[in-house]
Write a structure and sequence with these properties.
ABC transporter transmembrane region fold; single chain; 10 strands; alpha/beta; six-stranded mixed beta sheet
Length: about 625
Amino acid sequence: MRDREITGTDTSRQNVTETGARPSGGLKPFLRLLARIRPSRTLLAAALGLSLVNTLASLAIPLLTKRLIDGFHLSALGSGQIAMMAGAFLLQAVAGGVSVYLLGRIGQQVVARLRELLWGKLLTLPVAYYDERQSGETVSRMMNDSGVVKGVITEHLAGFVSGIISMAGSIVVMFTLDWKLTLLLLAGLPLAAAVLVPLGRSMYKVSKGLQDETASFTGFLNGVVSEIRLLKISGAEPYAAERGSGGIRELYRYGLKESRIQALIFPVIGAVIMLLMVLVIGYGGIRVAAGTFTTGSLIAFILYLFQIVMPIQQITAFFTQLQKAMGATAEMLATLDYEEENRTTGRSAERGQKPIAIERVTYGYKPEEPVLRGVSFTIEPGQVTAIVGPSGSGKTTLFALLERFYLPTEGAIKFGDEPLETYSLESWRERIGYVSQESPILAGTIRDNLCYGVRREVSEQELRAAAKLAYADGFIEALPDGYDTQVGERGMKLSGGQRQRLAIARALLRDPQLLLLDEATSSLDSQSERVVQEALDNVMKGRTTVVIAHRLATVKHADRIVFLDKGVVTGIGTHDELYRTHRLYRQFADHQLQTKENALPAANLMAMTAKELVLE
């Protein structure tokens, strides 16, 4: 059980005062986000201009229809009228189709740019950000919310602009007329449905491909986000950024296919419905007697009425989608405005053996509830320092400070004579090899996992040498595909001992000078523990090593043992020294030995308090 679970703390308080303020939803944040994305103004102006042309052409059609009906007979049906009618239809279809495609292209550019911004930001955010949020929420911000913003531009902006123009023009012509006659237009719906079917099938295929690619990219994104500590300590941000950008480009390609089909659907449906109305009204006009209200005027009224009803739906949909986009915008801006890590600022942490001094360090995830209080000791170069103590004493938190996931509230951690903050994050983390109890393994091959975050070319000889030192070469070579074996999600195809040995080999390939072992054998059976412990002994030779200890075998041979209790150092020394002078440590050692020999008397066990027994 981790320190923060015992103490009831929550890392969501980390840096909240500096960076946690979330912008409220509204139109201004939405416009600010669009300004940050910088969509093409030229394409947007062209798309809206063509949408205006499309609307004006649709407004001209009822007037042309009125002239056609009022003066209808075969001798009066000249080529000029036919040309004007055909030209209006053609202009409407072409302008509408190109406008929809341009808006679709702009929307895809917007969502691709937004995802690039969010992805680059997620890789540089501190661990505290991920402590505040669930990984699923983070993925949703990346995928779903950006899609909502795209929908406003791609699907609803043109309808909103053209709808306003269409409504204004139609109301001027038919202000005093009866709207109920629009029921005659329902006859066009079956033909519209017939046009939708083949295009809908094509859209389904593209949507299916888009969904599959989205699922694949989301799976990769979830894997990176859920193991963000491994990514950061491994320095694998460039690799993740490159692979993530590839996924974004693939989604962009599918999105363009979707836009091409939409560019056919909307103008074709609009043209078919309008053509059906003209044919129905033209046929009815032959049979209607002339009067004070001409047949042509009646038909024109019906057409204009239709051009009012449809924009009302479009405008309503636009504002509904805009509300969703404004809500999504607030969360995305909160992510983009969050203070990020600066990996490159500072001196390079030169390679060399120096002591790490922890001087009066205090830290708490909540300022009012410190986990560590005035901790001071020195990690000597080239030696093994073990950290032991009850659950919740601050051991894992101390590791997080050494990895610079957080900064001490008070005090300092120094490498040599300089505080850790003096050195760049990139160079400091390159010095660290980390092996945890969970031994995180990513989906992919064994080779991918061993080389994760290593920025140089790893030769086959070097790879095999690291696996041999970690006692992993035997089981790897026994697998059908060797180093190219797929390990499954989170390494599910491997045993706990195998995953742990891969984690050790991965740390070896980094050639770390500071090795952090977080209870690396605590969850293994006795046989696996023995093999892994031998592998760890190989790794620790000549390296500064800090161990969160659970097993007495590791503690007993450490050069120095630091005992933490409730965030305070209560004892420092060798195993023999602490066994003589430190009561809790002596009980810890006796309990380990007696449990191993299965000889702990029941009376002694009952006498010990729960706090004294629950030791990591």
